[in-house]
Structures are given as C-alpha cells and as structure tokens.
Specification:
mainly alpha; about 0% strand; single chain
C-alpha cells in the first residue's frame, strides 16, 4: 500500500483493482468491524489520488450540473445540521452526520465516474463481484 502512495499517478486499472479488492474483502471488513467505514475511506483515498493527479491542471476535472446540484444539497444539509444540532438529541445528530457522509461519498463517486472511463467490461465485472457478495450474505 505504501508503494502505491509514493506513486501519485494511478492507472484506471488500478482504480478498478482497488474497488474490486475492497468488495471482495467485505467479509474481512465485517469481521474486524470496519464495514461501516471502509467504503468511506476507500472513496476518500481514491478521490484524493485522483485530485493529486490533476493538482497542476485542476480545471480539467469535469464537474456537471448534477454534481453542483448535489453539492448544493450537501451544503444545505450541513447548514441545517449545524443550526439544529443544539436542539436535537445526540443520537439524531450522529445519525444525520452519518447520512451526510453517504451523500458526500456519493458526490465523490459521481465525480470519479464522470472523469474516469472504466469501460463496460470493468463495470460488469464489478457488478458481478458485488452480486456474488449480496447473494452470499
């Protein structure tokens, strides 16, 4: 893993392998208690690697209207959470933060998919791997 961190540029195949390995290791993540957070960490890691590839040409990253709309929703959700955090129960605030993290993760995935071409074959392979795990659990 540290070898990958030293090499800033990841090929699209490396992105695919990282996603595939995370999906294949879902039973391990479940056993060690990381399943609720592993997808967040994976998406954050992949997105940061993606941003580092474009750090000199950040304007080359494609951001669509849908991304901007979802980002606006995330900002409004965040402000609502901040405003209401003093009035609501702690459990509800923690639950809302967890939900907000999924919206943020979704936005990062959308930007990655928009800017990286995985190809139909890679998407079919990933869907087969995830369907296998859905059937086995």
């Amino acid at each position: 893993m540290w070898k990958m961190m030293n090499n800033i540029h990841m090929s699209q195949d490396q992105y695919h392998k990282t996603i595939r390995n995370v999906i294949l290791l879902i039973p391990l993540w479940w056993l060690i208690g990381l399943k609720p957070l592993i997808f967040h960490f994976t998406v954050l890691y992949l997105f940061l690697r993606f941003i580092l590839q474009f750090k000199k040409n950040i304007w080359l990253i494609k951001v669509t209207f849908a991304h901007k709309l979802l980002f606006s929703f995330i900002l409004i959700y965040s402000f609502s959470l901040i405003i209401n955090s003093f009035r609501a129960e702690t459990e509800r605030i923690i639950g809302s933060i967890y939900n907000l993290s999924y919206w943020i993760m979704g936005l990062l995935i959308m930007i990655l998919v928009q800017n990286l071409y995985f190809g139909k074959e890679k998407i079919i392979q990933l869907s087969k791997v995830s369907q296998f795990h859905n059937c086995s659990f």
